Amino acid sequence: MPLRSVVKGVGAYLPERVLTNDDLARMVDTNDEWIRQRTGIARRHIAAKDELTSDLGRKAALAALDNAGASVDEIDLIVMATTTPDNTFPATATRLQAKLGVTRGAAFDVQAVCTGFLYALAQADNMLRLGQARCALVVGAEIYSRILDWEDRSTCVLFGDGAGAVVLKAEAVGDGADERGVLSTTLGADGRFYDALYVDGGPASTGSAGFVRMQGQEVFRHAVKRMSESVERALADAGLSLSDLDWLIPHQANSRIIDKVGARLGLTPDQVVVTVEEHANTSAATIPLALTHGVQRQLFKPGDLLGLTAMGGGFTWGAAVIRW
Ligand code: ACO
């Protein structure tokens, strides 16, 4: 029987310190009403000075392992999506591996900004299905507070810090679309849009980390289009259609983007998981954060069809379809 990747557990972590919209209004020329109306964001969490991306990832990973009833000894693959690595090298995934006490298997980072979690999920899924690993941790972890220009109100209000993780195991569950597991993943990129969303630094350009720069409206337009199209493509790849979809778990950047994607896909608002209000855009961490939110509230029933989708810098985009 062919192997399929099955989600065994999910977990998330948000740093203790909360920064509200009112707090931000004391730092830059903005206000709670503007931020809520334009983005749906009410607050974001900010990592402590001594917290690293690998620390956030570790807490989310431990929560996911606990939820899965799995032990660290089972892990033989760690794929970490992050745009804010602890250091330029080695991969933050290897630091996470050491912090978890895992000493076998592969560990590497994936950099696809806000689409990072889906890129990481696709790599882990492919390796599990090929039999190259048996139990994977897929982690999205970010500390955006360290790459934000806190004087630029057009970007600093949008992002936050956080982490989420998923434990995936290879199981011989059959290959029908009604069998549980990851049914399909689809990824895309178009590097011509580099300037619309980027960080103005890096080891080879300036030697420092740099700050997020963004053309908000350009990003908004592409996000709605690419996220909707990706879900349709992933469904088609799995031999399914929109009417089969029970839940949308979109990247949490902006509630207006999410509303438009949901409407384009013909979903009702109660089929769409929205958590952006609580943590703002945590880039690669938003999808596992939203998945964990759904699991904690017992939203997903066995057999439900979940569509995950994201779009981010690059531009990059993607989707995954999972039978729960
Ligand atoms: N507070 C108050 N006013 C602000 C703020 C702020 N934080 N930021 C901008 N403004 C002002 C602008 O200066 C402008 O003023 P003006 O009319 O006097 O010139 C006015 O608000 C409108 O600005 P716009 O940029 O036109 O506002 P828009 O409605 O496009 O909303 C936003 C901006 C929220 C950034 C929107 O474009 C957006 O959400 N884009 C998507 C960006 C995104 O989500 N990026 C995340 C990374 S990519 C991803 O995850 C998909």
Structure, explained:
The protein has 324 residues and is α/β, with parallel strands linked by helices. It folds into two domains: 170 residues, Peroxisomal Thiolase, Chain A, domain 1 (3-Layer(aba) Sandwich); 143 residues, Thiolase/Chalcone synthase (Peroxisomal Thiolase, Chain A, domain 1). Helix content is 32%, strand content 26%. The chain contains ten helices and 13 strands. It has a five-stranded mixed β-sheet, sandwiched between helices. Strand 4, helix 4 and strand 5 form a beta-alpha-beta unit. The longest helix has 22 residues. The structure holds acetyl coenzyme *A (ACO). The site of acetyl coenzyme *A has 22 residues, from helix 2, helix 6, helix 7 and strand 12.
The main pleated sheet reads as: 5 strands, mixed
Which CATH C-level class of the largest domain is it? Alpha Beta
Question: Which CATH architecture of the largest domain would you pick?
Answer: 3-Layer(aba) Sandwich
Number of H- or I-type helical stretches: 10
Number of strands: 13
Strand order of the largest sheet: 1-7-6-4-5
Mean pLDDT: 97
